[in-house]
Every structure is written in structure tokens, then in C-alpha cells.
Amino acid sequence: MGTMVAVPRWLRISLLLVAGFSALSALAGMLGLTVGGGMGIPLEWIEGSPFDSYFWPGIVLGVVVGGVQVLALVAQLCRFALARGLHAAAGLVMMIWIFVEIAIMLVWSPLHGIYFVAGLVQVVLAVLALGAWPRPFLGREPRHPAPRP
């Protein structure tokens, strides 16, 4: 069984901040889309979609997008090694949510850009936490693998 390499403090804090921002935003979005009546977003934007209101998209936003962010946060705070992979998954879920939302609504706003970038940053940070950063950074692999004793 391999040993886990410690994640640098700046990387752990960055993951907590991005996931916390995304989780709180998803919760606020869910509340606004469900009990907030759609936050004033025109219903015409979802015409032709499977939805006749913003209620179910709000539930998906809160439960799926926010839920996976919360799972990543809890796993990290409990120091589970699984947290690194959960952060990558949470960032991917955020990017997919934004992509599908734009595809359904055919509308773009700066918030879409902010949340897509938040997901992308989370994925990049998670991949670095999983060990994608080579040490030394410009180190080279041998041309031929060393023979095993």
C-alpha cells in the first residue's frame, strides 16, 4: 500500500475556500430557485426544457452540486484521503452544471463564468493535491527504466 504525501497548507486552504464558496453559492441558489420563486429569472429561459419552473433545477443545484461540495469539505475536515478525489469530482460537477445550464437556457451571464472558473480551479487544485505536481518540477524520467534487483 502506498503512502500518502502531505498536501501543502496553501493547497488545503485553497481547496477549503473554493469548496466553501461553491457550497454556499449552491445552497443560496437552491433557496432562491425554490422558496425564492426563481429569483426573477424569466421562465422563458427554460421553455422547451423538461422544467416548467425553477423548483427542480434548484433542488438539483442544492442537492447534487452543493451536496458533492459538502462531501468534499467534510472529507477534508475529517482528513480522509478520499477528499482529494471528492474535490476533483465536485469541481467537475460544478463545471458540468454550468455547461448544462447554459445549454438549456441559451443565456450566458458573468455568474456562469465565475462558477465555471471556480469548478476549474477546484479541479486543478485537487489534481495537484493528488500528486500531479512533479518533484523536482523540471525533473526528467530515465530513458530506460532501471532493472529490478
Walk me through what this model shows.
This protein is 64% helix and 0% strand. The model has no long low-confidence stretch (mean pLDDT 92). It has helices at residues 9-33, 55-77, 82-105, 110-132. α1 runs antiparallel to α2, α1 (9-33) runs antiparallel to α4 (110-132) and α3 runs antiparallel to α4 (110-132). The protein has four helices and no strands. The chain is mainly alpha-helical and 149 residues long.
Provide the fold topology:
Elements: H1 9-33, H2 55-77, H3 82-105, H4 110-132
Helix pairs in contact: 1-2, 1-4, 2-3, 3-4
Order of helices and strands: HHHH
Number of strands: 0
Percentage of residues in DSSP E strands = under 5%
On the 0 to 100 scale, the average pLDDT is 92
What structural class do the secondary elements suggest? mainly alpha
Largest sheet: none
- Rg over C-alpha atoms, rounded to the nearest angstrom: 19 Å
Low confidence ranges: none
Helix content: 55-70%
Shape: elongated
- Total helix count? 4
How far the N terminus sits from the C terminus, by CA atoms, comes to 20 Å
